[in-house]
Amino acid sequence: MDLNQLTNDPEAIVEADRAHVWHHLIQHKPFEKDIDPRIIVEGKGMKVWDIKGKEHLDAVSGGVWTVNVGYGRERIGKAISDAVTKMCFFGGTAGTIPGATFSEMLIDKMPGLDRVYYANSGSEANEKAFKMVRQISHKYYGGKKSKILYRERDYHGSTLATMSAGGQDERNAQYGPFAPGFIRVPHCLEYRAQNDYAGDSYGVKAAEAIEEVILREGPDTIGALCLEPITAGGGIIVPPKGYWEKVQEICKKYEILLHIDEVVCGIGRTGTWFGYQQFGVKPDIVTMAKGVASGYAAISCCVTTNEVFDKFKDASDHLGYFRDISTFGGCTGGPAAAIENMNIIIEEDLLDNSKAMGLHLNEKLHELMDKHNWIGDVRGMGLFAGIELVQDRGTKEPVDEKKVMGIVADCMNQGVIIGATNRSLPGYNNTLLFAPPLIATKDDLNHVVDAVDQAMTRVLG
Ligand code: PMP
């Protein structure tokens, strides 16, 4: 078919998609006859329109918590266009003007960190971090300090090494065997506490559970601890009071690098530039992706302290530098978009909006909890929230996953896009997720919560 004709014919687009596109994270069987694949054609602010002309209020920033500054930002489009027209790409052995400029802006927001390594996706940034840890182990510890700790329920990416550090068993179930040297530590969700504790000390207990793993494995075999600041897809788990202080103390005590995966929380989601900044943590390595350019371009960063960076600066050793490359880390479109993205957040006070609207969302979700016994727990920070659905508040038995997805589908019918921890944790795919763009207003959030209210009544009764 003539391509011009194709792009102007909605039905032909749907058929082309049905015939040739392999969508992410989705079963294709229903596309054969029951339903059409969803094609999103336009976005403005917090709204998107599909190819059938239906309007949706997007409470998950592009489905996967990415479009932090909202849709339709012409100035980001222009910045990308200007950058790639002038100088589209040069391999990362050289620098570029947007790359250098954004690194300066970013480091300004991350006191204590110094160096930015550019890549393309969250998984890739995490792989870079893992490789740094492994190389440090080889160079300074005879290869012994190579284990990387990761936490149950956390997610760090879709590649095999990041899946080896994946705390969501159902996602991993069919892709093993995984890479050796990745060791799991327990989650820190107080609502589903895994150890006995006396109330307010759960945070410390949960961190001590990490220390137990370190002692079991041998502290001198462990190079890094990799954690999400707030577990995202694993159920919006905000670490309890005392947790981060203890984690920091443990890392220091055993000389373990603290790698924080800010792929979701980074760039304003929780109301500060980074999630770790909510807890006063001092990481050695920080990775980020989604919000860096709000999805306008593919860019991720692995940011380190000079202490880490300097370990790769030994010129007497011909193997001493970081022997890694990411071809498209040399694209200028990513950092050009990231510069404008950050400028928008600053000019429009979107960190403050995330904080204020986050409080409003939290309040509305608690009101919903008063109304529906199905809600066992409301969690979140800034414009990042989750509600865990249970059959009974006493037993905390999770609501059936099909019903959880039924609520998501009902909201979709109402023109509101929300998310869920679907198909990642056996038995616990029962948390509805909200991560709207940082521009969300009270009216937007009320609309979202009303839709969830109606959907819960219809689906759960
Ligand atoms: N880390 C976290 C915390 C994530 O949520 C994700 C993606 N959802 C990733 C890493 C991987 O990012 P990407 O899909 O860009 O590889």
From TrEMBL:
This protein's record includes keyword Iron: no
CDD domains: OAT_like (cd00610)
Molecular functions (GO terms): pyridoxal phosphate binding; transaminase activity
Pfam family, one: Aminotran_3
GO CC aspect terms: cytosol
InterPro entries: Aminotrans_3, Aminotrans_3_PPA_site, PyrdxlP-dep_Trfase, PyrdxlP-dep_Trfase_major, PyrdxlP-dep_Trfase_small
Cofactor(s) listed: pyridoxal 5'-phosphate
Keyword Disulfide bond recorded: no
Keywords carried by this UniProt record: Aminotransferase, Pyridoxal phosphate, Pyruvate, Transferase
Gene3D superfamilies per the UniProt record, alphabetical: Aspartate Aminotransferase, domain 1, Type I PLP-dependent aspartate aminotransferase-like (Major domain)
PANTHER family: AMINOTRANSFERASE, AMINOTRANSFERASE CLASS-III
Record-stated family: Belongs to the class-III pyridoxal-phosphate-dependent aminotransferase family.
Protein known as: Taurine-pyruvate aminotransferase
Species of provenance: Cognatiyoonia sediminum
